[in-house]
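Notes taken during the Thursday session

The instructor put the following on the board and asked us to keep it in front of us for the whole hour. The protein is Nucleoside-diphosphate sugar epimerase. We were told not to look anything up and to reason only from what is written here. First, the residues (228 in total):
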Amino acid sequence: MSDPARILVLGVSGLVGQQVLSAAMGHRDVRLVGLARREVLLPQGARMELHLAPVEGWGQEIAAIAPDAVICALGTTIAKQGGDKAAFAAIDRDLVLASAAQAKAAGARGFAVVSSVGADMGAKAFYLRVKGEMEAGLAKLDFARLDIFRPGLLRGKRVDDARPLEALGAALAPLADLAMHGERRKYRSIRGADVAMAALQCAREKAPGRFVHHHDEILRLSARWQRG
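Then, after some discussion, the predicted structure tokens were revealed:
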């Protein structure tokens, strides 16, 4: 029996990160290792190795972890950064890229990242432009496998991260989703749990390449993970 894949999880305190921990329970073919700046409340029953270090020390920690693959769910909001766009970009673009480069140097073969539907370097919206720049930077790192998830509005309970506007959007999403057909289906809301399971499925995939996943493909990957 082969050793379980050693998967580094970044953003373990967020919605998708927490769901990754929950979804991995009972799966012996993956071994999760988290890296965070501070203590993280783990879902009941979740077991994982957790490294704590300031961001400046993440490179050393990632080298010591030597992951086979990375699931990156790092992210904040401009509002949470007090309206400071530079502070937002420092996390959603710069920290993601720095961590990815460090993981690649440590031998990671795969990298799965949560981006956003509409991400584009040429987007007028600052948020989407930063996400597009992050995706472009990851492509240049030449991972054997790169999985980019572009979900719509994420649904699910966040821990210690109140986002009133997102909560309102999530409440209204089921009705709005019904109006999105064809090409617009990719803008439908989606459970953070489905994105987490899709990321886990991709982290253990062997096929090389660069893959961009929208709503329907995320659901298909989530279903594959659940089937085991």
